[in-house]
Amino acid sequence: MKRNTFIVILIFVIFFVISFLSNILGPIIPDIVDSFNLSIGLAGFLPFAFFVAYGVASIPSGILVEKYREKKVLFWAFLLAFGGALLFALVPTFTVSLLSLFIIGIGMAMLQVVINPLLRVAGGEANFAFNSVMAQLFFGGASFLSPMLYSYLVLNVHSGQEVNAFISTLNGIVPAELKWVSLYWVFAVVALLMVFIVKMVHFPEVELKEDEKIDTQNAFNDLLKNRYVYLFFLGIFAYVGTEQGIANWTSKFLQTYHNVDPATEGASVISYFWGLLTIGCILGLVLLKLFDSRRVLLLFTVGAIVSVLVGLFGPLEMALYAFPMSGFFASVMWSIIVSLALNSVPYHHGTFSGILCSGIAGGAVVPLIIGGLAELVGLRLAMLFLMITLGYILSIGFWAKPLVTNATIKSWKELFS
């Protein structure tokens, strides 16, 4: 029991690390643009390089888990993340940054495939729902804290003051004109530490359920005949594209149109975006006990549309609140779209989940499209592309016809039972 509890805590830490490495791009894009003299269009290739790795690696990672088991895949995933972060820390150029982000992205995709079945076994099936929510809180907590770490490093590295031994060490290895590169040294150390931890820990045997297995032969043929597979794949594509489109371009938008410092106030806005997204997940759990998930999706999507429009066209005082609020309204979208998808297709859930996870590549494509459009019409109008992705998510609330709807309570007493 002690060992299993330790594994559950370790999985929570892995969720934290995945988020810590994945969601820092938004705050640092303005610095990358300035440091490498990039156009906004070229900057769009940064999130593309990271999230396209999910589209490439999600299904192969599921096959690797079945063949080599969880420990080896975790080990190689963190080793890839370490190699990618160290590569860019040592050679901080734009070309290397694209390769680095792709390598780290493959590592993160491998981790995502492993950790949910592992969490189910380590914590017990009876506790899986609770542990899954806790894992999302860890995930959201890292997204909230990583922009703050970025601000701390940029303000203290090469500041002329000896803050502590940690900063002094970074002063010796980070170029003075690229202070934000210090983040990648931190990433490398964290990933290397996880490599050693995974190597030493004994993991329980995980027997995948039928709905967790990926069948690359008959299942694909069956699923590709079902139109809902395509429609819900696009739903995940649109959601992750929306999330990353907001997270990656908001700080640059605030800098461009409101002269907001991306290292301080811009980073804070992104931090609160992820923080409110996490808080929204908790409220979403309550709402899903009270109302049909499609109605919750409609309500929250309308809120997200309004928040993004206010952020884009309102004054600075409103934008500083509206963009974080869009994170709050986006909070329930992933879980509702996935649950509606799995409840709409009665077979091959493991392979279907792999296809849905490939939709995370939307986080690669949508920020890239926004960056390309920004070259033509400016970033403000380019970010209106989010109305298309949000509009598609809104449509799901109307056309989704799940075979099983989410269970709702009949009285307040049931909510706590």
UniProtKB/TrEMBL annotation:
One of its GO terms (cellular component) is plasma membrane. The keyword Transit peptide does not apply. Pfam families: MFS_1. Its main location: membrane. It is found in: Cell inner membrane. It comes from the Bacteria. It is a multi-pass membrane protein. GO terms for molecular function: transmembrane transporter activity. Keywords: Cell membrane, Membrane, Transmembrane, Transmembrane helix. PANTHER family: L-FUCOSE-PROTON SYMPORTER, N-ACETYL GLUCOSAMINE TRANSPORTER NAGP. This is Fucose permease.
